[in-house]
Amino acid sequence: MERTQDPRTVPASPAGRRGRPRSFDRETALEKAIMAFWEHGYEATSVSDLTRIMGIGAPSLYAAFGDKRALFDEVVAEYGRRYAAFGERALAEEPTARAAVARILREAAECYTAPDRPQGCLYAHAATNCTSPEVGERLREKRNEAIAAVESRIRADIAAGRLPADTDARALARHAGAVVQGMSQQARDGASRAELTALAEIALSIWPRT
Amino acid sequence: MERTQDPRTVPASPAGRRGRPRSFDRETALEKAIMAFWEHGYEATSVSDLTRIMGIGAPSLYAAFGDKRALFDEVVAEYGRRYAAFGERALAEEPTARAAVARILREAAECYTAPDRPQGCLYAHAATNCTSPEVGERLREKRNEAIAAVESRIRADIAAGRLPADTDARALARHAGAVVQGMSQQARDGASRAELTALAEIALSIWPRT
DNA sequence: GTCTTTCTGTAGCGATCACTAGACAAATGT
DNA sequence: ACATTTGTCTAGTGATCGCTACAGAAAGAC
C-alpha cells in the first residue's frame, strides 16, 4: 500500500519503472477515447474503433486501461472533470439557485455546441439503450445526482427565504434538468448555439425575479 | 399495380392467398416488436431477441417483415400511429398554440409513465448512438419535424394576433420540444408521473396567460 | 554483456451479430 | 388425386464483437 501504485495509470517512463516504456502518451490516448465515446456512445464504439482512433494496438489498450468497460469508466470520470464540471461550479459559486441555474443553462448552450467537439452531453447520450445494465445505470446516476444537486441548492434558498416557502423544489430542479437534457438532445439534432441560448433564456423566465 | 399487394403485409389467410398460411398473427407480433425496440432501442435489440419475444423463427420474421431495418421502420410507423399521435392531435384540435402545448406536455407526462409499457418516448431513445446512420437520422427527423410543427402552430397564433408579434416562435417551439425530450429522459431515469406532471406545469408558466 | 521486466504486433480465440439455404409442412388450384 | 405456392424449421453462413496467447522488442538491473 506504499510503493505499489497501479502500473496501468503510471506515466510509464520516469525513474523506477523497469521494462520497455509505453510508446504512446496515455493522456492523449484517453482524450481520443473520450471523443470517440462522446460522439458514438459506449456500445457503438468498438474496441477496434478505439485502437484505430487512439493509435495503439489492442493489447496496449488492455494493458493501459484494463478493458473496454474500465476505459469507459475512466472516460466518464475525466469527462466529468474536463467538460461537465460547469454545473457543479455554478452551483458552488453563484449566490442563488436561480443564478446558478441561469448560468448552467447558458453554459450548457455553449458547451453542447462547442465546435470541434461532439455535440451534446456524454452523460445524457453515451449509454442509452445499453446492453450492459451497469454502464447505463452509471450515467443514469450521474443525471439523477445532477438534478438532486440542483434540488438541494433550491431547498437552501427556500430555507434562507430567497425563494417562496411553498416552492416545489423537486419539480423546479427536474424542470431545469429536463431543459438541459432537451438542449443536449437538440444540440445532437443540429440546433445552433444561438437557438439553444434563446431556448435557455425562455426556460429561465419561469423563475421568480429576485 | 392492381391485384399485386405486398404479400408480406397481407393477413395471409383470407380467400385468394395460396400456400401454407402464416402460423402467427402479424399484428400482435409487430406489437411485441414495438415493445422490444421501445424498451431497448434499435441496436440493443437483436434479431434473436425479436424472434424469442415475437414467438416466431427467424425465417418467418424475415418473410413477414423483410429485415431488421424494415421491421424497425414498420415499428416506428405503428408507434407513431398508436402512441405518439397525441402531439399531432393536440396541435390540430386545440384552439391556441398555448393550449396545444399545454395538452402535449400533460399527455406526455402520462404517456411516458404509462404502466406496463416502456417508459419515455421511442422517437427520443430508440436510435441514439446508432451504428447505422440512416436509422438514427430517421428518428432525428421525427424529432425535428415535431418541433417544426409546434413552431408553425405558434406562427399561426402570432399571425392571428393571439401571441405578441415579437414572439420568438422558433425558440418557443424548441423550448417545448426540449421539455418534452427531457421528460422522456427522466421517465426512463425513474421519474414518476406526478413528478413529470409538476415539471410540465412549471414549463407551461412561461407562456403568456391568454 | 546477460537477466528480468514490461510493452508491442500478429494472429486468433469463442461468442454473437444479421441473415439465409434447403428440406419439410400445410394450405389452394385444377 | 396431384402440382403449386407459401410458411416454418434446422442448421449454418461470413462478419464482427470483446479479448488474449505468444513471440519479439526495448528498457533497467546486475
What's the CATH first level of the largest domain in chain A?
Mainly Alpha
The rounded Rg of chain A comes to: 20 Å
Oligomer state equals homodimer
Helix-strand category of chain A: mainly alpha
CATH architecture descriptor name of the largest domain in chain A: Orthogonal Bundle
Describe this structure as you would to a colleague:
Two copies of one chain form a homodimer. Chain A is mostly helical. Chain A folds into two domains: 26-80, Orthogonal Bundle (Arc Repressor Mutant, subunit A), CATH 1.10.10; 85-204, Tetracycline Repressor, domain 2, CATH 1.10.357. Chain A has ten helices and no strands. Chain A has helices spanning 26-40, 47-54, 58-65, 68-82, 86-93, 97-111, 122-125, 133-159, 169-188, 193-204. The relative contact order of chain A is 0.11. The mean pLDDT of chain A is 93. The A-B interface holds A 40-44, 124-126, 128-131, 140, 143-144, 147, 168, 170-172, 174-175, 177-183, 185-186, 188-191, 195-196, 198-199, 201-203, 205-206 and B 40-44, 124-126, 128-131, 140, 143-144, 147, 168, 170-172, 174-175, 177-183, 185-186, 188-191, 195-196, 198-199, 201-203, 205-206. Chain B binds a DNA duplex (30 and 30 nucleotides) through residues 7, 12-13, 15-23, 46-48, 56-60, 62-64, 67-68.
